[in-house]
Amino acid sequence: MASFPGWLPRAAVIALTCAAAARSEQLAAPPPRHEALRAALEELRKADQVTIVESWSGLGPASEKRYVLRRKGTPSKEGAVVPDPVLDRFLDSLASAPVLSGPYKPFWDHTDDYPKLSITMGPREEPVVFFSESQGRDRVPWAIDFAGKRYVVPSDAPARALDLVRGYLEAGLVASESTDPSRPRVVEATPSPRPTPSLPPSPAELDRAIESGNAAQLKRLLERGADVNVTLHGGSTTPLIEAARRGQVEVVRALLSAGADPLATTLLEGDALSAAVRAGSDDALALLIEAARRAGARKGAYRRAVVDAAQAGRAEALRLLLAAGADPDRGDDATGRTPLHIAAATGKAGVVAQLIRAGARPDAPDHRGLPALIEATQNGHAEVVRVLLKHGARSKLQEGLSEACGAGHLEVAKLLIAAGADVNGTAFNGSTPLMSAAGGSKPDVTRMLLDAGARVTPVDGNGRTALFIAAVRGCDVPPPLAAAAQAVVRMLLDAGADPHVRDRDGRTVLDVLALIPPPHRGRAGSAEMVAVIREARRP
Prior knowledge:
The protein has 539 residues and is an alpha+beta fold. The chain folds into four domains: 13-187, no CATH class; 200-297, Serine Threonine Protein Phosphatase 5, Tetratricopeptide repeat, CATH 1.25.40; 298-395, Ankyrin repeat-containing domain (Serine Threonine Protein Phosphatase 5, Tetratricopeptide repeat, Alpha Horseshoe); 430-539, Ankyrin repeat-containing domain (Serine Threonine Protein Phosphatase 5, Tetratricopeptide repeat, Alpha Horseshoe), CATH 1.25.40.20. It is built from 24 helices and 14 strands. Strands 1, 2, 3, 4, 5, 6, 7, 8, 9, 10, 11 and 12 form a twelve-stranded mixed β-sheet that branches. A hairpin with a 4-residue loop joins strand 2 and strand 3. The relative contact order is 0.05.
């Protein structure tokens, strides 16, 4: 953990102004604010001068000092000239700081002093301003003001950046309460009063080695003291997660050998285990599982990886995770969807069977009370439905039949009926499977239900029959689909459906059809549907 040098005031305000030597021409269309901020932070790596202003106010007299650090050959002649490698690593540390959107709330633990820490980069017309009003050794959290928007830096990266150049700050002093700002001192690249420590490789160097997949280069960086658990890309990933995401087995091995945390997570990328699953690298996953086991991982540590394996249908990855003790029934804690729900929804029949063999409950409900069978029927995955039924899934069987009939999944509907679903049973709001098929304008399913004994007389909670529903909804579809709706209506009329039945509001289907406007906005209108019904009523 970095700390400020002892000669700095106990509570200081630091403003860093980094001016780039040159900027590229303005793009025709500016990027979104967050992208623009990230671009400006990248420009920071090219900065040729840093101005550090420290001030303090509190119970004692206010104070202020200003320091300048610059590269050799810059137009400015004030302050201390710093070797390029030192300044580069200082700037890399700033540019790699994690950035989040949100309100800034400084940390205070006493009221004796009032620090304000800030970092300013870029041109005067649109600077990037890091700042902190927090107390404490490293002034965490920091914040950034850029283009009228404020971001939070939940990291000690600015303090670590200062630690890299602490040997040059006193040499770069150009103004203080007792120093005339109009007479700056110039010191050429001689750090004082203490020597600069040996500097570890920057996060950017580590990132480049991982990107190239060069395990040998990575090992050299780690031997030189690179932080194996540093966050990269603005806090969105770690070296281990990034290597796993790329499926780089030897890089993963090197990072784990150097002490990388196999259980570290980030909001954007999740953890290394799930990254390896998404990359399809079972070898990397095996290394990570073993490292997680040694780190004392509990069942919940594998949750995200199991979900990703179920969704992608990665049977070997799932086998490795289940063998490590992953819970086959725990998935998305926010929705209650288990890995079985996810595999069923994506049609992964083999994974569904694998999860059930590992102990997953076929009828386990999500937070809505719905089992995996409903997700399979909604998506028409007949083979998944077959596997679930074979292993005893029976929860919400009637609701599943209605879902399948409404979506036109004929084979799924037949499987559910064979498993015991009632063709005349009711589900949502008293709706029967025939009403669902009629409302969805599904002639094939309608014919199958009628042949299986479905009755045309039942009414739903609104007092509407299957004929009523089919005729009304069939007017609110594009003309090419209206023919299917009319075919369903004819089937129902031929089966004895009565168009004179009144709904809960006392209206017949013809009464409602009379209220529907003529064809407009790509909708079929009611004229042809009325003609179909009237034609069927003739003797």
